[in-house]
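2024-03-11 09:14:02 INFO receiving multi-entity request
2024-03-11 09:14:02 INFO entity count = two
2024-03-11 09:14:03 INFO echoing inputs for audit
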Amino acid sequence: MAKSRTQLPKSPTGIQGLDEITGGGLPKGRPTLVCGSAGCGKTLLAMEFLVRGATQFNEPGVFMAFEETPKELTQNVASLGFDLKDLVARKKIVLDFVYVERTEIEATGEYDLEGLFIRLGHAIASINAKRVVLDTPIESLFSGFPNPFIVRAELRRLFRWLKDKGVTAIITGEHGEGTLTNQRLEEYVSDCVIVLDHRVSDQVSSRRLRVVKYRGSTHGTNEYPFLIDENGISVLPITSLGLQQIASTARISTGIARLDAMLGGSGFYRGSSVLISGTAGTGKTSLAAHFVDAACRRGERALYFAFEESPSQIMRNMRSIGIDLEPWVQKGLLLFQANRPSFVGLEMHLAMIHKAITAFKPQVVIVDPLNSFLIGGNETEVKSMLMRLVDFLKMNQITGMFTSLTSGGDAPGQSEVAISSLIDSWLLLHDIEIGGERNRGLYILKSRGMAHSNQIREFLLTDHGVELRDVYVGASGVLTGSARLAQEAQEQAGKLARQQETEHRQLELERKRKALEAQIAAMRAEFEAQETETLSIIGQEQVRGAQLAQERVDMGLSRKADTKPNKKKGDSK
Amino acid sequence: MRTNPTKHAPPKAKPRKAKLNRYFLRLYVAGQTPKSVLAITNIKKICEENLKGRYVLDVIDIYQQPQLAQGKQIIAVPTLIKKLPPPLRRIIGDMSNTERVLIGLDLQKKA
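2024-03-11 09:21:47 INFO inference complete, emitting structure
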């Protein structure tokens, strides 16, 4: 064990969570008082401390019981998977039952309880024990011996003696009235005091543990819920630990391409918290199922906490929209945990969720639905529970998807569980009632850290999953469902008509162009005819002019007859 | 375990009472403390005065035989265990209160 200069040496209990709260375990070599009322789990905690010590930390231990016989003890803890018989046989644990019966005892003067010391000393020496448990010695000793002063003095001596022996001890005690224990034992055992509590509120019981005192060490001071199940005790230090989570930039798909597109193109951030809220029957679970399906397709593990439907019912229903979750369950990628919300208290639910998450190590967690936890006016408790759950998920980089049922009358942006501030991405599903029918609409109320669509999409549940459609937004408002289809048909018809008209106009134009061209051709032909005629007239005129000139020369020749013939008329010029 | 003769024939017990009424006593002490010494002295005196000739007294130091402390459920010391005659009774302390010792040994009724 690492000994630090500032912290006193500690003896790990091996009990899940307790070592975290106490910063490493119980004070080594000192006695610790564990007190609580009947049935709160004192004996189990003490026994687990011994068994874990013997099996995990190689520290044999002595269990001195004042109420239960070794046989009873062995039977009682066998249900937690502790094989005391074997541990006793292997000399890892000694069970000693101290029997004190008042009616058999007659006091005749001075006595002390040295017998107890000798027994304990002998038991410790026989297996070289490092841990000791005294299970409810106080009550039986005080009731067994007539002189309380002697018992008190002897107990005080016993605790000092245990310290001198250097054994790490747990002494259990019943809760006293107004004090931690009967007979104010906490005055003697003052190094470490742990109080266990088993309370019932709203007919739901929960167990809690609190480290009241830990001399020489820091420790968690809150009340922590704890569970007793087949693996023993687990304490869950789940109070909000601060906001130091690392924010991932990795994105994960929602399982619906159109929705991914609405969320900046690539879906949610890994490790973010997602809320899907909506009125009844708007498809919250279907969205969640898509998300789970997508996670499992990526080979990730998904843990589905169902609080209103049984796993087989969810799987059947999802099969109807084409999502088959069963293979993922069989592959071990998907685990359902279904419980009624009233099964245990809130804290215990949280504790169980923690435990399941720690055991299954999922990347995706679904809680469906959240608000089934709301029973009576426990809103603040639910909120604090969710805060811790969200913190826990974020710390482990788990993407959490929560569904929340809102009642119709509420403002859509108001979730019944006022947890909007804890949520990174919030999808809102709501009914759109138009034209005598109800359709589903989806929009993103918020999504931190990404550009996201502000559009309402119509949300269709088809036999091949969820489909998102653009709603019709036009002169007559937002239309969905049949109204959208009708509108679309109407538009289609209009479009066709327009197309025909266009074609018609094109033809007309063509025709006109042809007519024009014909006209042009006719005019050109006329022009050409005119041109030809004109040119031929010009030609004739020129020929005539030449003839006139020749005639004049010929005339001159004929008059004078001495000039050269008109063959040489060109030279005379 | 030693069988208890009275168990077999309670109706006939009366005439043989003197014979059967033997006392088997064990005194458990822890070392030679003043309390131990005082207890031994006191119980021997009481036995001699009240049970002369019909008792067996063993003195056991549980420091020497610590396993007996567990086996015999010894917590307080000194403890005197009256094994016989029944009922089994534990008398604790230094035996200085003779009256209470006699009550414990069923030799005197509670006042």
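2024-03-11 09:21:48 INFO post-check: Chain A has a mean pLDDT of 83.
2024-03-11 09:21:48 INFO post-check: The radius of gyration of chain A is 48 Å.
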